[in-house]
Amino acid sequence: MEISALCIGLILSLGLCELNSALALNSSEDDVKQRAGHIEDRTGAGVSTQTSSVKCKLQGTTRLPVFSMDGDYVIGGVFSIHHYMHTVKHNYTTMPEPLRCTGSIKTRDLRFSRAMIFAIKEINNSTELLPGIKLGYQIYDSCASVTVAVHVAFQLSNGLDPVFYTGDNCSQSGMVKAVVGETGSSPSISMSRIIGPFNIPQVSHLATCACLSDKQQYPNFFRTVPSDQFQAEALAKLVKHFGWTWIGAVRSDSDYGNNGMASFLDAAHREGICVEYSESFYRTHPRSRIQKVADVIRRSTAMVVVAFAAFGEVRLLLEELALEPSPPRQWIGSEAWVTDTELLRFSFCAGAIGFGIQKSVIPGAATDERVCDGTEDIKTLQSPYTDTSQLRITNMVYKAVYAIAHAIHKAVCQKTNSTTQCDKFTRIESKEVLTQLKKVNFSRNGYDVSFDANGDPVARYELVNWQKSESGSIEMVTVGQYDASLPVGQKFRINRNLTWVDGGTQVRSTKAIM
């Protein structure tokens, strides 16, 4: 028993260690110290210091959100704004240095965070949804790291105050009523296991692992993006449709890649498709591992490569392949990378095809005309952050925020016995938001938002194709749709011409089955 208690104590201590973000756009460490000082000042002014009022301190230093705003009810947000984390070898004789994000900013995830802010501001200005009530937010950068996501999950459960007072113990309700995120499946799994026991609902915009549909393990998890089970089956049917029966397969060595590829290979086997190789790697692996995967692709006889991988892994692999050109390959992509415009610079992937989340329009979300130094127009910048022409996952973030807002609205109004007038002074628990989230069913900007018994939406995808434009650049073109809600035989359709890797109309990649 004592050993178990010691282990639990160590785990909680590690979870609450100082893990400051390298991107603190709206805050600084001084803000936390100042907040602590204000709390100390207030205690001298009127908070009882008798034994009935216990002074509690969080262990470690509070990790700061990159964006934050106070409100009557606060929503948490977790995005992989950076895709790498600075790693340090610890000797554990001294307190480890705080973990820091490193590398360039992932502009698409930065746009996700801004979309969350945009949606909350839109709701706060609404006279129909939560009138008179102000939503706030705390948005964190997870560095695409499970370790950081775990720390953020603890913090979202605890709140930002490093010092607080309670009646007789150090327990208190977390500040957030729900969480939007994470971008990846592995961080989302870890977060759900931490905040789940506290009944804090989590709505992800891009965590697609089919494993997250298991409500026995993840009862608080919802998502606005379809489960990979649907995508894996759709990809297998796509490969079979074009007669590609001899393929190669690469995947992220993560919950997303391993589970997604397992589902795809199972579906491919049923379709009579053979796999020459199946390789996995992760962005933090040594370069030699990525070189090995690239060499396997170069030496293979399969002309078609199915990549069930995240953006970070695909970028590293394509950069490695670009160093030593190999015979052209027909790339088949999963939604995590095939619609990411940052990868269109790899011209040797022209002809790539895969399923992406439906393109959408969010009224009012176009980039404004604010300038950087008084001369340039931000609209002239060529960046995924400013590109609002293909809002796919961004719309999933937008829908997630609105789903949570509708659930909060129902929870608050139910307590005030009114369907329209909600009192901002009504206190609700995250469990009540969780209950209402299961019943959410509304339309916004022409898009339906609801969840089935597994917390999943209806699976709908666009089939996208990387085609060369007249100028020679690669552009993303929608060539078909897949709708899992339609009857068998009508789910998958192609309505535009496709361009393959060799510039022709189709690539043949077959091998006789003995």
Automatic annotation (TrEMBL):
SUPFAM superfamilies: Periplasmic binding protein-like I (SSF53822). Residues 114-468 form the Receptor ligand binding region domain. GO terms for molecular function: G protein-coupled receptor activity. Keywords: Cell membrane, G-protein coupled receptor, Glycoprotein, Membrane, Receptor, Signal, Transducer, Transmembrane, Transmembrane helix. Residues 1-24 form the signal peptide. It is found in: Cell membrane. GO terms for cellular component: plasma membrane. It is a multi-pass membrane protein. InterPro entries: ANF_lig-bd_rcpt, GPCR_3, GPCR_3_Ca_sens_rcpt-rel, Peripla_BP_I. It comes from the Eukaryota. This is Receptor ligand binding region domain-containing protein. It comes from Perca flavescens (American yellow perch).
